[in-house]
Amino acid sequence: MCHGHHTVKMKEGRGMDGRVFQNIAIRGGSMLIQTGVLVLFHLIILSMSLKLNNEIIDVPVLRCGPDEIELKAHTLKPFEGQTFVRGHHRSPDCARVYDTTENITSDPQLSISLSRISSCGLTFERNSETRRVTLRAVIIFAFHPLFVTSADRSFSIECAFQQHDFTVQTQLDSIGDLSTIKVITATALPPKVHLSINGGVEKESRKDERISVGSPLLFKWSLDNSYPIYGFRVVSCDVETKDERRSSRMIEAGCSLDETLIANIRYSENDSVAFADGFAFKFADEEEVWMRCQVQLCIHKFEHLIVTGAGLNDLCQAPKCDQRLKRSNMEEYKLNEQPSMIVSERFIITDSKVLPAQEFRAPKDSDFYRDSNDENGNVRVMEVMGEGCRGCGYKANTEDHLAAIVIFLTAICGVVSNSLIALTASRLPLFRNSFGRLVRLQSTGEALFLAVWAFYFAPTLAFNLDFNKSFEISRRFGQLCLICYDISIYTHLIISINRFVSLYFPTHYGSIFTDDVTKRIIFAIILFSISYSWVLPAGNCNMEFSNEKWMLDYHSSCNLNLLFYAEFLRAVVIVAMIFLINSATFIRMYCHNRGKSFHRNSGTLEAALLRKRRNVEINFIRQVCLQGLAYLTELITYFFVSLAFPQKWPNFLLTTWAWLMVHTADGFITLLLNKQFRFIFFSSDESNQPQTITLISSNKGRYR
Fold first, then answer.
1. Quick check: 585 and 500 in contact, CB under 8 A?
2. Residue range 224-229: mean pLDDT, rounded
3. Most CB contacts within 10 A, which of 291, 488, 505, 561?
4. What distance in Å separates the CA atoms of residue 249 and residue 134, rounded to the nearest whole number?
5. Can you give the pTM of this predicted structure?
6. Cβ partners under 8 Å of residue 296, min gap 6
């Protein structure tokens, strides 16, 4: 007969540090849905950050009862995650999930029935001399549902039971609980995997050294310590830029996808070290390259180890890279039950060395720069990886010229259209009010924005100005573009509110949008736009024109979270507000005109007036839809679609050209859908311009 008692203490271990990757995909047919999706997305991100910002307080309490083993912990905040026996987190008998919708608690626990110790992987040891029975296991409290993170804790537990002898006389004594006879303190740190990138010889560390493109590299993955049973496998690897805007998969299912850059991975005999040869490579116009790999622990097969059933998936298995393109082989390379870990390392790559100057005879029709002192046509050309060196006496190539022409033509068309609106609006009776002043402000902001591109950035690209000398000037012109953009979009919002008030509160419109109030609103828009333009520079997000990318690019040290909230999300919210307000305005206009149609008589002046109102209504909805669609399309293409097209021309069209086009199109939309603007270009006599028609009705009052 056995009696038992228990006390157990554990030492805790931290998990691997990891980074959470965000891929943003926005789809939808309306700006309202887009805004809702973004808000929901950031609520999820917020909840995830709260989930990981948690920890276990004090040492968990272990109870070794007659029927089960129970480990109970106490956390700083409500626990969201799972507790499980290491290697068995998918088994319902060996794990427990805590969800916010069901069993959220600050006291997570895991109970393992003694009848399930075999299926949960608990080790069982009996000592014939001391007559003790010991059960051992490692229990993990994971604060993330998928990965091992820095907040996770693992505890090595042991329950020791002592067997006692009793003298049996006339009857059997009742059998009591087994007792734990000793407090055992231990620490179990989850194995960690490190990634290092070295030169062709391992001792030549390349971590902080600048490497030339094409230099030999040795990629090495290794466990932090030697473990008799644990090994690992590299599941996948991605290379990406520091800002995560561009990435490429290099290793999939344990095999290289491009053996010209990185060879297939080789493993040591004990599966604790992995190697892969490769050559230095980089993204265009980027020096710093990050390599992030998903690795997974496995069990190293050794002598006397017998594994059957589902446990075979936990063994370290080499991938069949000679058949890696076959789907069946991908399915065979399954993940085991161990959580994945993310390891990362960076390496800094520079372009190949500049070749020495070479003399050669250029054709007479050559586009190369001619030395004015060389009458025979001999020229000197500095080449870097086959492309003309900027600022080395070599003028911009044909593609640079073509891009500069596209920028200039697009921008100058917008300058003309928006300037016409700003200069002629004061001549129209319909625009001699608060609405007209706001329209002139918006058009002026867009015209100035496009003028910067037409008369500064386009010549800079065409004539290949040296930005090392004009860096501060470029930064200030980039800031001016942001100011003009903000003036334009904020004025759009105020114009929408102006239309809304004029239809819903016509009797109060004159007192709300007075001349004095309008001037204050205009001053506030300009002041706020100038002040807000310093928010991005505060986060090292200065915009500087890049000759290589043909765009206003953010500095490499830019805070991407600040950029997302300060630029993209802010603009989407404003565009959504404009859409909602204009929709309400259109509904009011439609209901008003529909109500008037019941009181009209065919052939009367009122009927003709209603038909004109109907045309105004149609043009209004066209203008609202086209302008809103243009702004939303530009935001999506600039921040998201362009990431899928890193090639120079597609990326240029989806970023720079789209940004210019939305402001150019805005001016043309206003001109084409407003009869007053079209009429003024054909008649300079104000008396011949279309006048506002006023009709006094005994039943309905005054209409325009």
1. yes
2. 74
3. 488
4. 47
5. 0.44
6. 232, 233, 235, 335, 336, 338, 339, 340, 341
